[in-house]
Amino acid sequence: MKKIAVVLAVMILVVSLASLALAAGMEGMQKGTIKNVDAKAGTVVFCAEGGNKDVTLKADKSVDLANLKAGEKVEVSIEKDTLKHVMMAPAAKKAPVGC
Description:
Blueprint: H1 2-26, E1 29-38, E2 43-48, E3 54-59, E4 73-79, E5 82-88
């Protein structure tokens, strides 16, 4: 009986740690729209999907601001107030026309 309790406790601990690690990995990933890019200052104004508040982020040195334009839909990785990674959002699929 003690062995079953120990195995069960270990399984619960492993599942809990795995879910925490997964949640931490997803932290900072957001979809939204680029509102403004200032390459000289190294900043980007970003509005998260479903939000109504624009946030000014300092771009990490690894982020190429030359490819970003205002109005683009993107998925970004943010740590504190720093833009760490930018990916263009996939284009919305058009509904088929006709029969």
